[in-house]
Amino acid sequence: MAATYGRYLRIAKNNVTIAQCQSKSIKVNNEVIDVTNDDSDAFRVLMGLPSLRSLDISLEGLADRGTLRDLGLDDLAGISTSRMLTDITIVSGEFSISGNFMMTSYEESGSYDDAVKFSCELQSSGAWNYTIIPA
């Protein structure tokens, strides 16, 4: 696998970028089942398949009007909306992942000499599709 630019990794809904990100990360979780018992001779023994698979996405960037900001600040406006983002696609130069994600946190911060920035966390809900993009 060749190296690729971080700017090629983007988060989109219906093929439209939904946030002005400067930093993004994707974490794949495969929680295991520990089946260690008295016969394990003090060694941990794990089942071969994960008990829970999940994707967590962390985003940071410039706060601007748009899907993520509107959703993140709805509670402040007294608007009760679902934080579920459906049909989200994470695209890089080499792969894409699509599925549904729940916004679990949203934060904005800024200093007097810089732009207002945001950070948020998205967690997968249900199965996702992973596709390799041909070179």
Question: Can you tell me about this structure?
Answer:
This protein is mainly beta. The chain has one domain: Pnp Oxidase, Chain A, CATH 2.30.110. It is 5% helix and 50% strand. The chain contains one helix and seven strands, in the order ββββαβββ. A seven-stranded antiparallel beta sheet has the order 2-1-5-6-7-4-3. Strand 5 and strand 6 form a beta hairpin.
Q: Which key features would you list for this structure?
A:
135 residues; Pnp Oxidase, Chain A; seven-stranded antiparallel beta sheet; mainly beta; single chain
Beta-strand content: over 45%
Radius of gyration: 18 Å
Write down the CATH class. Answer: Mainly Beta
Q: Tell me the span between the first and last alpha carbons.
A: 11 Å
Count the strands? 7
The CATH topology name reads: Pnp Oxidase, Chain A
Number of domains: 1
Name the helix and strand elements from N-terminus to C-terminus, one letter apiece: EEEEHEEE
Helix/strand structural class: mainly beta
The CATH architecture can be named as: Roll
Summed over residues and divided by their number, the pLDDT gives a mean of 85
Give the secondary structure arrangement, pairings included.
Blueprint (H helix, E strand, L loop, with lengths): L9 E4 L2 E2 L2 E12 L20 E11 L4 H7 L10 E8 L3 E15 L7 E16 L3
Antiparallel strand pairs: 1-2, 1-5, 3-4, 4-7, 5-6, 6-7
